Amino acid sequence: MTLPDERYSAVFRTAEFLLELQRREDVPEDVRSAARGLLRHYPTYYDLERICAACPEVMVERYEDLHKFILQGSAAAAGDSDERP
Q1: How far apart are CA 74 and CA 79, in angstroms?
Q2: Sequence ranges of the domains in the chain
């Protein structure tokens, strides 16, 4: 099960990865260009904050450790899974 803070982290880290790809001179130009194209419409930090405020059950910047522990335990007990087909 992916928790909302894990989702936020994945989206944020993906943006950082794409930024790094587009800046590196040792990366082929077609890859840098693709990274630039993806970033053009990628959510900004401002967008992520708005998503967190509007849908905290979907995305949140950070959970307190106890809150996260409880959510993970509840999901495990319920047998929730994020496995994709």
Answers
A1: 9
A2: 4-78
